[in-house]
Amino acid sequence: MEFTLNIFTLNCWGIPVVSKNRKERIEAIATYLQTASHNIVCLQEVWCERDYLYLKDQLQKQFPFSHYFYSGVFGSGLCIFTKWAIQDVFFHQWPLNGYIHKIHHGDWFGGKGVGLCRIKYNDRLINIYCTHLHAEYHEDDIYLAHRVLQAYSTAELVNLTSSPADVSILAGDLNAAPGDLSFRLITQLPSLLDPYTLLGDHDQFAKQIGTSDNINNSYSDQKLVKLCPEGKRIDHILFNVDSKYEAQVNSYGNPMEERVPGEPFSYSDHDAVALELKIKPSQSKPKRQYSVEKHFQETIEEAIKVCREATVLLASGPITL
């Protein structure tokens, strides 16, 4: 019997004191979700527990089940809301999470990682993974090795825990665009599909799909907008279905307006992503694909090279502020 999943993800940019219009934006996000058709919601950068509790209270009717992944000093910033019962939860904190002396970046104190909620919908099990990889911050990207190891750790977790789930969904801010090393690790090891590649006409959606620093977001860096008006697609919803099912992408993209209604600002400094999947029994019986493709070996070798170069750099001297 077929069923439909409607997943929503958003980096909420909810840093106390630092994030502009945080209170108004959190309230607007709650208002949007109260009337939207999503049945699974994954949020990142909900750093203030008060904001999570506010969202939980406001969304109790639409999403009676939720979980916040506490971690580190400030919390992981990750939470999941769902219409269906959460059967199990698990959080994996990454062993490499930025540098403690980079206080203004804050990743180390957040204890970031990947959270898993296993949801039971009738007789089906759905794994929902929510995550937020380390940002670049600078052009020289001293955190590349951190992000690569976080991506591999996340990919391993998905690969090892996806069974016995019928559907596995990974949603969040990966700080990696398609083709980037981190993105390839996450999609190749557990064989996660990018819905964008399943759309009919890629060019038709190209300028609407950038989720960070695009021309339509009020908080975008104008220098980056001039260089690339469509922005970067670094927020994703990836999926995999068991071989006894097949999935059809009904819709994919940013479901929210460019501005909070009645306000001059956007919902966040990132754009949201929503995916509607139609899941139905498969007519054929294909074998599930794991990381057997020969190009995955090339990806692993590239990741090892990045980590070795980072180790040499650390050995040469201290990382400055």
Task: Describe the overall structure.
This protein has 321 residues and is an alpha+beta fold. The protein has one domain (3-316): 4-Layer Sandwich (Deoxyribonuclease I, Chain A), CATH 3.60.10.10. It contains 8 helices and 11 strands. It has helices at 22-35, 49-58, 107-110, 144-161, 181-188, 202-205, 222-227, 294-316, and strands at 3-14, 40-46, 65-68, 79-82, 86-93, 113-121, 124-132, 167-173, 235-241, 245-253, 273-281. Strands 3-4-2-1-11-10 form a 6-stranded mixed beta sheet. Strands 5-6-7-8-9 form a 5-stranded mixed beta sheet, covered by helices on one side. Helix 4 crosses helix 8. The termini are far apart. The model is unreliable at 203-207 (pLDDT under 50). Residues 9-270 form the Endonuclease/exonuclease/phosphatase domain. Its main location: membrane. Pathway: Sphingolipid metabolism; Lipid metabolism; sphingolipid metabolism.
Task: List the defining traits of the structure above.
321 residues; five-stranded mixed beta sheet; Deoxyribonuclease I, Chain A; six-stranded mixed beta sheet
Order of secondary-structure elements: EHEHEEEHEEHEHHHEEEH
Question: Strand content of the residues, in percent?
Answer: 25-35%
Spatial order of the strands forming the largest sheet: 3-4-2-1-11-10
What structural class is derived from the secondary structure elements? alpha+beta
Largest sheet: 6 strands, mixed
Share of residues in helices: 25-40%
CATH class: Alpha Beta
